[in-house]
Amino acid sequence: MFRIIRLAFMIGSLALLFILLVSPSEASECSLFIPEEATTCDVESEPEINNEVFVTPEAIDDSLFGRRVYARLADNANVYPGPGQGAPVRNVGDGFLYATVNRWEEVNGVTWYQINHGEYVHEDDIQLVPASDFQGVQLLRQPERPFGWVVQDVQPSRQPDGEPGPSTIELPRFTLFEIYDAVQGDDEWIWYDIGNGQWVKQTYVSVVDVSPRPAEVGPDEFWTEVDLYEQTFAAYEGDRMVYATLISSGLNRWPTREGVFQVWERFTEYKMSGAEGKVDYYFLEDVPYIMYFDQLNGIALHGTYWHDRYGYKHSHGCVNMPILDAEWVFDWSADAPNDLWVSVHTSDPNDYLN
User: Fold this and answer.
1) Against a cut of 0.70, is the pTM above it?
2) Tell me, what DSSP letter sits at residue 195?
3) Cβ neighbours of residue 109 under 8 Å, at least 6 residues apart?
4) Which are the contacts of 2, defined by CB distance < 8 A and separation ≥ 6?
5) Within 13 Å and on the Cβ side, how many CA atoms surround 78?
6) Largest Cα–Cα distance of the chain, in whole Å?
7) Which of 107, 208, 215, 270 counts the most CB atoms within 10 A of its CB?
8) How far, CA to CA in Å, does 188 sit from each of 183, 203, 263, 350?
9) What ranges in the chain are assigned the alpha helix state H?
C-alpha cells in the first residue's frame, strides 16, 4: 500500500515539475497529451494584434479608390473615334500601357471601351484590372515592438528551423503580426517569434520598426521612411510613428536612390510615362496621389493600380504604394507644418538580433 502511495506521489511530482518547466505560452497552447506520431504542437490560430495600437484608417472623403476603372492596353492596339467607327485615330504602340476607362458600350455584340474623349478600344485589345484593396495600419501610439506583414503565404513552425505541424494553419499574404523575438537559423536566415509559439522565416515577411528621426527633420515635423531592404513604409510626426504599410521600390535595374528628400510637387492624379522608344517603355494614365521627392531622377511616392506585389521590388524607380495608403499619406501631409520629408535607406535585419 505504501509503495502504491509513494509511486503515485512520485508520478504527481514529476508531472508538476514538467508543468513548471514548460513556458506559459507552451502550457497554454500545447496539450500535454501529444500523439506519439506528432513531433510538435500545431498552430491553430492567427497572430493576435494589439487593437489599441494598430487600427484600420477611416475612409477619406472623396476617395479616388473605387471611383476609377483601370485597364491594360494590348501592344499595338488601335484606338478608334467611336465604337467600331471609322479608321483608327492612333496606335498605342508597344509597352507597359495602362488607361482609365470612362465608359463602355456594346455594338453588334462587341464591347467598346472609351479611354479618353473620342477614343475607343475594342474589347480584344483591353483588359480591366482591379486595384489592390490592401491597406496598411494607422498607429494610435508608439508600437512596443517591431511588426510586419506576411508577404508570401506561410505555415509557421513551433521553433526556428522547424517544420510546420501536420495541421498547422497557413497564414495568408498580408497577415499582420508583431515580433517578440528573433534568432538566426542554421541557414543564417532570421526566424521571428510572432506570438502564440509561432515562428516564421525572414524570407516570408516584411518588417517595420521605429527609426530615429533624421537630423534634417525638426522635432514636430512630418516625415516618412522608405526601407528598401524590408520594402516597407512608415510615417512619423516628430519621433512618433503614426502609419505603416508595404511598398514596392525600384528594381535593381532602376534602383530608388537613398537619401533624405522633401516633397516638391504633388498631384491628385496625373499621367506618368518614360523610356520612350525602349523595351521598358511605359505609359500610365491617372496615377493617383503623386508626391514627387527626388527631383534629380523624377521619383515619387504614388498610388499604384497596375500590380499587387507590395513587399517586393517592382517599380521603375518610384515608390509604389497601395492606393489607399498613398491616399492617406497625401491627405495627412497636406496639413503638415513642413514640406513632407522622405528618408530612403536600406535597413540591416541583423539589428533585430541585438
Assistant:
1) yes
2) S
3) none
4) none
5) 11
6) 105
7) 208
8) 9, 11, 38, 10
9) 2-21, 24-29, 323-333
Q: For residue range 314-345, what is the model confidence (pLDDT) as tens digits? A: 999 999 999 999 999 999 999 999 999 999 99
Q: What is the mean pLDDT of the chain?
A: 89
Whole-Å CA distances, 159 to 31, 56, 186, 200, 298: 16, 31, 12, 9, 45
Residue 169 in this model has a pLDDT that exceeds 50? yes
* Alpha-carbon span 137 to 244, nearest angstrom: 6
Cell of 307: 500590380
**Grid cell 527609426 in the structure block, residue:** 211
For the chain, domain boundaries = 1-33, 69-129, 134-354
Residue with cell 493600380: 305
Instruction: Please state, in angstroms and rounded to a whole number, the distance separating the CA atoms of residues 79 and 116.
Output: 10
* Alpha carbons 231 and 309: distance in angstroms, whole number: 10
Residue 133 Cα distances to 63, 73, 176, 182, 226, angstroms: 13, 22, 15, 30, 21
Q: Does domain 134-354 have CATH number 3.40.630.30?
A: no
- Per-residue pLDDT for 187 more than 90? yes
Residues in CB range of 139: below 8 A, 6 or more apart: 53, 54, 55, 241, 242, 243, 244
244, 177 Cβ separation under 8 angstroms: no
Residues counted in the chain: 354
What SS3 state is found at 85? Answer: strand
Q: Nearest CA to 325 among 170, 95, 134?
A: 134
Is the distance from CB of 319 to CB of 233 less than 8 angstroms? yes
Average pLDDT over residues 54-68: 93
The closest of 46, 47, 353, 308 to 202, measured between CA atoms, is 353
CA 30 to CA 196: how far, in whole Å? 10
Q: Name the residue type at position 246.
A: L
Judge contact between 293 and 342, C-beta under 8 A. yes
The answer to whether 77 and 126 are in contact (CB under 8 A) is yes
Percentage helix, strand, coil for the chain under 3-state DSSP, each rounded to 5: 15, 35, 50
How many helices and strands (H and E) does the chain possess? 3, 25
d(C-alpha 120, C-alpha 214), whole Å: 49
Provide the grid cell at 221. Answer: 515635423
The single-letter DSSP state of residue 59 is P
